């Protein structure tokens, strides 16, 4: 979750590099570009609602619920998150709608991954949920504090011609790709 939070702050650092420097958006137009995030949240909420009503609620009703039943959604979206980072990095210099698609996919994955991860932690550590959430908040806050400090420098140092955020986003995407196997480790014994 800390990487998700840090990546969200990196996006804020990379927006001027992409939308102002490449697409020559004004500040108002760059602000409107955040609508990809809004659409991602809305569709993420809808997907989470469908998952909740179709898969989780019947498990609760039959008293067969285990926290690991939440993880299949994380397994799918764990791959969409790094895909959105790669798409964002390498789609700069092509029509800006593809970059908006990457923002949509990014926020769609981040929204659901956050919700599922919070629910999973709360259900696994019922007696220590306050400590678990405090530790989670600490690591998320440290990443959120650190990522903007090196974000612009990382993008500038790894930039190549016509792709100012390609390798910077890919670097974070490779780390996210490595971390996306974690839900597979926790859910190897549970099936829907």
UniProtKB/TrEMBL annotation:
GO terms for cellular component: plasma membrane. It is found in: Membrane. Keywords: Membrane, Transmembrane, Transmembrane helix. The chain crosses the membrane at residues 32-51, 71-91, 103-125, 137-155, 167-186. InterPro entries: MFS_trans_sf. GO terms for biological process: xenobiotic detoxification by transmembrane export across the plasma membrane. Signal peptide: none annotated. One of its GO terms (molecular function) is fluconazole transmembrane transporter activity. It is a multi-pass membrane protein. It comes from the Eukaryota. Its main location: membrane. SUPFAM superfamilies: MFS general substrate transporter. This is Uncharacterized protein. It comes from Saccharomyces mikatae IFO 1815. The lineage of its organism: Eukaryota, Fungi, Dikarya, Ascomycota, Saccharomycotina. The gene is SMKI11G3150.
């Amino acid at each position: 979750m800390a990487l998700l939070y840090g990546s969200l702050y990196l996006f804020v650092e990379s927006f001027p590099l992409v939308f102002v420097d490449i697409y020559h958006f004004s500040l108002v137009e760059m602000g409107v570009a955040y609508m990809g995030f809004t659409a991602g949240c809305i569709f993420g909420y809808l997907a989470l609602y469908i998952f909740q009503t179709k898969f989780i609620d019947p498990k609760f009703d039959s008293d067969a619920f285990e926290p690991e039943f939440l993880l299949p959604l994380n397994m799918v979206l764990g791959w969409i998150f790094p895909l959105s980072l790669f798409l964002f990095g390498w789609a700069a210099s092509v029509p800006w709608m593809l970059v908006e698609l990457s923002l949509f996919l990014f926020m769609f994955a981040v929204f659901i991954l956050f919700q599922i991860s919070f629910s999973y932690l709360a259900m696994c550590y019922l007696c220590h949920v306050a400590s678990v959430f405090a530790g989670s908040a600490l690591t998320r806050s440290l990443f959120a504090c650190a990522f903007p400090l090196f974000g612009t420098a990382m993008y500038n140092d790894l930039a190549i011609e016509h792709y100012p955020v390609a390798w910077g986003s890919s670097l974070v995407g490779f780390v996210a790709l490595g971390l996306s196997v974690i839900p597979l480790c926790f859910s190897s014994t549970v099936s829907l």
